[in-house]
Design a protein that fits this description.
It is a single chain. With 200 residues, this protein is mainly α. Helices cover 53% and strands 0% of the residues. It has helices at residues 12-23, 29-42, 47-54, 58-71, 73-77, 91-101, 117-131, 141-150, 169-185. Helix 1 runs antiparallel to helix 2 (29-42).
């Protein structure tokens, strides 16, 4: 007896994300297939209908669904890092994210003063390819939020820092003012040096 069709619940944001992956020309075919699998399952299509429609094995369908349910959308779509293969998101790419998060929005042409998670996510995906990090076009907001938290980067808050004050600042300033006072006392109104009366 064939298994009854079932559906997975994906958010509107995840749905938009999956559809954007399908439209990305430079992305791997297997990534597109997995995105389609999740979208089909969100519509309660049967495994057989997905297999027939995409020309893939039933094991591929079930493995993708299992990974989504156990580990989330990124691990369902992209392969885990394997030894001998480059990491999915390189250290350089992550450094670029941090660099962006620490920049002033006005320097990037925005009118807003502070980043929002949505704005930062949108900017990264829009400019990732031209910056040389095409993989970042597919990151999700939850991943970005988690990474920023891990790195203790908070671009959504303003922090004011007081410049560290020299502990001898007051004493040094007093000495400088004293020198100026002494010079001032030795000059007349015309700026001529006053020669002290020796008393002789």
């Amino acid at each position: 007896m064939p298994a009854l069709p079932y559906r997975i619940a994906i958010s509107d944001e995840e749905c938009t994300y999956l559809k954007s992956l399908i439209k990305t020309r430079s992305i791997q075919a297997q990534v597109v297939d997995r995105a389609r699998i999740l979208l089909c399952k969100s519509e309660a299509k049967t495994d057989k209908a997905i297999v027939d429609g995409l020309g893939i094995s039933v094991n591929t369908v079930r493995r993708c669904i299992d990974r989504y349910l156990s580990s989330g959308i990124d691990l369902a779509i992209f392969d885990n890092e394997r030894s001998g293969h480059p990491t999915e998101i390189t250290d350089d790419a992550k450094s670029w994210i941090i660099s962006l998060a620490c920049q002033k929005l006005c320097d990037l042409g925005y009118a807003a003063e502070l980043w929002t998670l949505t704005a930062l996510h949108k900017h990264i995906r829009a400019h990732a390819e031209e910056a040389g990090y095409p993989r970042l076009k597919t990151i999700t907001k939850p991943w970005l939020q988690k990474y920023l938290k891990k790195m203790d980067i908070k671009p959504f808050k303003i922090k004011y820092y007081l410049e560290r004050k020299d502990p001898d600042f007051d004493n040094k300033m007093h000495e400088v003012l004293l020198v100026y006072k002494q010079v001032e006392m030795q000059l007349d109104d015309n700026g001529n040096i006053i020669i002290p009366d020796s008393g002789t």
